Amino acid sequence: MDLPSHHWPDFLPGWVWLCGAGPGDAGLLTLHALNGLRQADVVVHDALVGPEILSFAPQAELIHAGKRGGKPSAKQTDISLRLVELAQAGKRVLRLKGGDPFVFGRGGEEGAALKAAGIPMRIIPGISAGIGGLAYAGIPVTHRDVNQSVTFITGHDQSAAAPHKLDWEAISRASEVLVIYMGMKHVGQIAGALLSAGRPAEEPVAVVCDATLPEQRVLETTLGALEADLAASGLAPPAIICVGRVVEKRAVLNWLGS
């Protein structure tokens, strides 16, 4: 695939590009991401970056640096140090992260480490799964008949426990739609916290697994039945959970039929 005529930035030796790969479908890469893949000497990629996307960089060394909840994974400090070392060795380093690097992707931590080491960098945003993944399931995160706000929430804190510092009552009052990343492990605690905070048990919920990929699956349920229905479904991470009446729009907008 040739990029259309444009002044695309040169990937200079010793630079690191922090780049979002989108939610999974290779067609959702940005052109800047594709340009980076074509020029990189090294691609340091997450577990959720698939082989089709990596195939755009046949010339590059591929380094897996995936972080998956509950599984052995690289420590963040080690990943950041590796990026610095590779750049100091004169490599063109593409740090390729699923979704967007600045949306629950620790891109800010890696960028700060590069800045502290004097490594020049470029930030390339990507389509976040909380928006693009839901769109592939036929769920708009905003709809003027339903909501004027949306809140993005992580399903675990730095220790991989359920996020205990969140003010669930304030979140429930303030936002009609909640989009929860990495929430399957603690779904019972999260659903319980939302119910205790006043969200109705009959509120629509969708769980989208393997979003934007051919194997995408969607569970539609309610907040009160979420934990039991999810356990019975056999679905597994990665997943995005959407809580709110925008889920009902899927009846009309489910363009994939998944």
From TrEMBL:
The keyword Signal does not apply. It is an enzyme of class 2 (transferase). Its EC number is 2.1.1.107. GO terms for molecular function: uroporphyrin-III C-methyltransferase activity. One of its GO terms (biological process) is methylation. Keywords: Cobalamin biosynthesis, Methyltransferase, Porphyrin biosynthesis, S-adenosyl-L-methionine, Transferase. InterPro entries: 4pyrrol_Mease, 4pyrrol_Methylase_sf, 4pyrrole_Mease_sub1, 4pyrrole_Mease_sub2, CobA/CysG_C, Siro_Cobalamin_biosynth, Uropor_MeTrfase_CS. The keyword Ribosomal protein does not apply. Pathway: Porphyrin-containing compound metabolism; siroheme biosynthesis; precorrin-2 from uroporphyrinogen III: step 1/1; Cofactor biosynthesis; adenosylcobalamin biosynthesis; precorrin-2 from uroporphyrinogen III: step 1/1. It comes from the Bacteria. Pfam families: TP_methylase. Residues 16-226 form the Tetrapyrrole methylase domain. Belongs to the precorrin methyltransferase family. This is uroporphyrinogen-III C-methyltransferase. It comes from Pseudoroseicyclus tamaricis.
